[in-house]
Amino acid sequence: MRIDPSTASPARIYDYYLGGKDNYEVDRAAAEAIMKTVPEAPAAARANRAFLARAVRYLAAQAGIRQFVDVGAGLPTQGNVHEIVHDVSPDGHVVYVDNDPTVLVHGRALLEGSPNVAVIRGDLRRPEEIMADPRLAELIDFTEPVGLLLVAVLHFIPDGDDPAALVARLVEPLPSGSHVVVSHGYEGGMDPSDVEHALGVRRRTAAPICSRGPEQVAALLTGLDILDPGIVWIPEWGLPHPPAPTDDPQLSHFVGGVARKP
């Protein structure tokens, strides 16, 4: 695995926004360029992380999920999925999946010593390879419900790659009662010129972003039961009660929700 320090990485830009140190100058430059028109980008990253934490805690504490597969996991940071899961269920299993060499190197160094946790290489565009990974098979029992996390990752998949079909192929081997958590970048409410500037910066990174609104994101979850309150701005999502957002929810620039496999 070769880490490319000359091209900005989405995982490292996200790490920078969250105050991490696993990023390069090219990542910081890209992040700052985005912030020229989207100054709330770091706050949006934190809002997405908080949504992930609420959703995982709900699945672990309320839905009884004891095993999670986090696809497009990104770099380790505070409030990792396995930490939330183990706070509720110390014997819970978590498998992190990513195709970014930086994530794999740092993730394995920091997380492989944690109980019942693994970091594997996988690409969302090749679902069957993810599900057939030997290490994943060791930790995930496909006869029991699974929490599949697709947080801030599907917007890297263009329509031409049929993201709905990719989700369906990931969900297919999961048993009834499994849940899928999704968050997705959305430009709704932004000035068109600001959108073009931010997306232009993203196009020069390793993975450009495709914006999708609530109805488009819901369409990626065809065949699943989307839980209340549906696909909403992520600061508005919470079970049993949504949190009270302190700012305009649209400033999160992410929509998301949780769905259950019947």
UniProtKB/TrEMBL annotation:
UniProt cross-references to Gene3D superfamilies, sorted A to Z: Vaccinia Virus protein VP39 (3.40.50.150)
MF annotations from Gene Ontology: methyltransferase activity
Cited InterPro entries: SAM-dependent_MTases_sf (IPR029063), SAM_dep_MeTrfase_SAV2177_type (IPR006764)
A GO BP annotation: methylation
Pfam families reported for this sequence: Methyltransf_19 (PF04672)
Keywords of this entry: Methyltransferase, Transferase
Keyword hit for Transferase: yes
Domain of life of the source: Bacteria
Protein name: SAM-dependent methyltransferase
